[in-house]
Specification:
The termini are far apart. The protein has a single domain, classed as Immunoglobulin-like, CATH 2.60.40. Helices cover 0% and strands 65% of the residues. It is an all-beta fold and 173 residues long. It has a 6-stranded antiparallel beta sheet with strand order 1-2-4-11-7-9, with no helix packed on it. Strands 3, 5, 6, 8, 10 and 12 form a 6-stranded antiparallel beta sheet that branches. β1 and β2 form a beta hairpin. It is built from no helices and 12 strands.
Length: 173
């Protein structure tokens, strides 16, 4: 029997180092120098998504309802923003641990604060952007509603879950 994972979200501190180079001091050309600038933020993301599927032929929302994806205490280099992306960290599995083939997991974003939410579809092969903060934002968040739809006939009702792998980047927008 599978134990349900806690619906709590994972909070972590992400530190990102940026290597900056310069070649002028007080307007005078100098030999190139390197400066290591630390970027950091506390990030709030769910470690997995649970679905209680009653009708395998209907789209089902996650049992957690809307989850919050976000960050706070951000220290990001000037001209850069924080981007949060996700991919599946394994197969969608049923309560008995077997894979559930033919599933499409997608999300819709709403209520973005200090940034932009991006709707998308979860894959195992590539990270997909979920949220991008605004310039100079020290915090930001977005509500995410996850849903699952199945194709094929080998689908059973019951509990399904997928683990998530998150990527946090700072980028120049």
């Amino acid at each position: 029997m599978m134990q349900r994972a806690s619906a709590r979200t994972r909070i972590g501190v992400v530190a990102i180092a940026v290597l900056c180079t310069g070649n002028a001091v007080d307007g005078e050309p100098r030999a190139p120098i390197s400066v290591l600038q630390q970027e950091a933020a506390r990030v709030l993301v769910p470690p997995l998504i649970l679905f209680e599927v009653h009708d395998p032929h209907a789209t089902t929302e996650a049992v957690t309802g809307s989850t919050t994806i976000g960050f706070d205490d951000a220290v990001v280099a000037a001209g850069r923003v924080l981007r949060i992306s996700v991919k599946a960290d394994g197969e969608l599995t049923r309560a008995d641990g077997t894979a559930a083939p033919g599933a499409t997991i997608s999300w819709k974003t709403s209520g973005a604060s200090n940034g932009v939410g991006v709707n998308g579809t979860l894959t195992r092969s590539a990270y997909t952007q979920v949220f991008q903060g605004n310039l100079a934002a020290r915090s930001g968040s977005v509500g995410v509603t996850w849903s699952i739809a199945f194709s094929g006939t080998a689908v059973r009702a019951g509990t399904h879950q997928v683990a998530l792998r998150w990527r946090i980047d700072t980028i120049v927008p």
